[in-house]
Each structure stands twice: as structure tokens, then as C-alpha cells.
Amino acid sequence: MIRAIFLFAVLGIGLFAGTQFAGQQGYVLISIANTTIEMSVTTLVIFVVGILAILFGLEYLIKKSLNMTSTTWNWFSVRKLKRARRNTNEGIVKLLEGDWQAAEKKVTRWANHHDMPLLCYLIASEAAQEMGDDNKRDKYLQLAQQQDNSTLAVELTKARQQVRERDFEQSFVTLSALQNDYFSNPMVLSLLKITYINLKRWQLLLELLPRLAKAKLISSEEQAKLSKQAQCGLIAEVAKSKGSEGAIALWNSFSRKTRHDGDIVACLATQLIERQADSEAYSLVVESLKKQQNDALLQLIPTMNLADNYPAIVMLQGLIKKNPEDAVAHSVLANVYMGNEKWVDAQTHLEKALSIRADVSDYSALATVLEKQDLTHAANDVSRQALSLISTS
């Protein structure tokens, strides 16, 4: 537009000057080598305007041609991009449907034309793993690693695959490298939880739990459950390497609240019993039961090899006196009596426990007690009741 205005302006000025100097057009001589060109000033102005108009016209045609070429190129590029996106979307659907081969084919065919090839290669690696082709899986992960800003996505995909394959040693290595830079990433934290539990890295799990709770990845109930599991795991770990004294030392290092937890006490007592520290286990159990009753602790008493189990009998009788409907206390006392071969007393308490609630182990114990008293017919009846309870459970 500006060029057209410029040409009209020049042409107008020329025409104006022509009319003003009519009959006085002047003289222009151009000499080049042996060639001379003669013309009036008016003719020169018209000639220059004509040349400019031609040049402007050529410029316009060239630009128009280039724009058409660029538009055509962009049209093909956008068409390929749309097709790549459509194939990737279809590949994701195929992956969700379980058609791994189709998913791999869809996402890789146009990956080079996709605006995010990282997504294509990650989906392809997932499909390859589901097909059990580790070589293809690793190849696609390598291609994904070559893309910009791919570290987190690739490593998380790799870690998820390792966890699914139960290759927890490798997932531990992968996630350990990530957690420093991605301290609060929820996927990293969740995968670490699974890895630590399966590798029995109890101390690391205890350190991880507050971060999981802060990120709202576990409920308070699950946190308490995992904390107990980790603490019991630590006790077993230390007991195995350092014996009963090491386990007691570790337990003493726990907080007061933890030491008063009956389930944790039961874990320690179990480890002490396994290492023939039965008297220490009994003292620990009795001290804990004074604070609060715990069925898991009670059920450990018959497994203890005590020099004299009379104090245990007195303690259990005291619990029953406080609560005659305590089925677990009746069952435990019956088992202690069985250890002393007091079959009648054992029968009494087993029958009382079973009158409160049905329990397969108590039925089995009662059948044994009846057989010891040569009450075979009654023992068979009890055994049939136990079998009936098992079949309906």
C-alpha cells in the first residue's frame, strides 16, 4: 500500500512539474561506453516510475510465491501433527484396553511428527513391558531419555515397571537417585513406600512415613499400622543380628508411647521367646498387661517355656475374675493347663471360651483334651463341629 502511494506521489509530482515547465522539458544525456541515450526530464521521470513499479510488482509476486510455499509446507506439517496426535490418543486407548501390540504400533508410527515424542515412547515402553519384550522396552526408554526435560517422567516410568516386575533392588536404586531432587513428588514417595516394605528397609520406611502423611498419601490409620510394622521389623532385624539383648536395647530406645503399645511389646516378646529368653518375655508381657489388656500378648503365654507357670495361671485367673466373658483369657488358661496335663480344667475353660465365641483352634484343642480323657465319641463330635466351622468360614 505504501509503495503504491509512493508511486502515485512520484507520478503526480512529475505530472505537476511537466505542466509547470511545458515547453521547457530540459535535456538528459546518458553515456555508457560507446552508447548514448537522450531523453527529456519528463521521459526520465516516467521511466524511473515505470522501473520502480516493475520492481515492486516483482517483489510482490516473489513474496506471494514464498507465502504460498510456506502455507503449503505448514499445511502438511499440521496435518502430520494432527495425525500423530490422533494415533497417540488411539494408542493410549489400546493400552488401557490391553491391546499392547496395537498400542505400540499406534504411538510409534508417527512419533517423529508428534509435538511430544516423549509421551509416545513412554507409552510404547509400557506396551512393550506388558508384552514381556524387555529389549523393546529399554529401547523406547532410551529414545524417551533423548527428549528434552524427560528425566523425571522416564525414571518414574522405569521405577513403576521395576515395581510391577517385583525387581525392588533396581527400583530402590532408581528411586534413591530421584528423591533428592524430587523430595515431595507423590509418585516417588508412593513407590518408595512399596519398595521399602518389600525390601524390609524398616528404618528408611519410618523416616518416610511423615513425608507420606504430609503429602496426604496415607491416612493416619495406615501410618500407625506401617509404623508398627516397621518397628516390629526393626526388632526382628536387630534380634537376628544382636540377639535378645540387642532387641531389648532397641526397644528401650523407642519413645514411651511406643514402648506402651501392646502390639510392639508382643513383637519384642516373640523375638525373646524364639531366643529362649522366656522369663524376660514373660516379665515384659505381664508388665504390659498391667497397663492394658492385649489379646496378642495373652496368646504368647502358653508358648513360653517357664520354670514355673503358676504365676501365669494366677494372673489369668485374675483376668477371668474381672471379666468372666473374656474368651481369650479362658482359651489361654486352658492351653496353660494342657501344658500341665490338667485335662479337666483345660476342658472347662475351652468349653467356656467356645460358649462365648466359636474358634477353630479352640475346637481342635478341646478335641485333643477329650481324647486324652478317652472321651473318643465326644472328641469326634467336636472335630466335626470344627470341620463344619471351617467349611462355612
Give the terminus-to-terminus CA distance. 91 Å
> Mind summarizing the main beta sheet?
2 strands, antiparallel
- Give average pLDDT, whole number: 85
Instruction: Please report the number of helical segments.
Output: 19
Low-confidence stretches: none
Q: Within the CATH hierarchy, at the fold level, what is the topology of one domain? A: Serine Threonine Protein Phosphatase 5, Tetratricopeptide repeat
Indicate the proportion of strand residues: under 5%
Shape: rod-shaped
Structural class: mainly alpha
Within the largest sheet, what's the order of strands?
1-2
Q: What helical percentage do the residues reach?
A: over 70%
CATH architecture of one domain: Alpha Horseshoe
Order of helices and strands: HEEHHHHHHHHHHHHHHHHHH
Rg from alpha-carbon coordinates: 45 Å
Can you identify the CATH class of one domain?
Mainly Alpha
Total beta strands = 2
Pfam families: HemY_N
Keywords: Cell inner membrane, Cell membrane, Membrane, Porphyrin biosynthesis, Transmembrane, Transmembrane helix
Main location: membrane
Function: Involved in a late step of protoheme IX synthesis.
Protein model, in words:
The protein is an all-alpha fold and 393 residues long. Among the domains are: 2-80; 219-305, Serine Threonine Protein Phosphatase 5, Tetratricopeptide repeat (Alpha Horseshoe); 308-393, Serine Threonine Protein Phosphatase 5, Tetratricopeptide repeat, CATH 1.25.40. The chain is 77% helix and 3% strand. The protein has helices at residues 2-20, 41-97, 100-109, 117-130, 134-145, 151-164, 168-179, 186-199, 202-214, 220-253, 256-259, 262-274, 278-291, 295-298, 310-322, 327-339, 343-356, 360-372, 376-392; strands at 28-32, 35-39. The chain has a two-stranded antiparallel ribbon with strand order 1-2. A hairpin with a 2-residue loop joins strand 1 and strand 2 (35-39). Helix 2 (41-97) runs parallel beside helix 4. The model has no long low-confidence stretch (mean pLDDT 85).
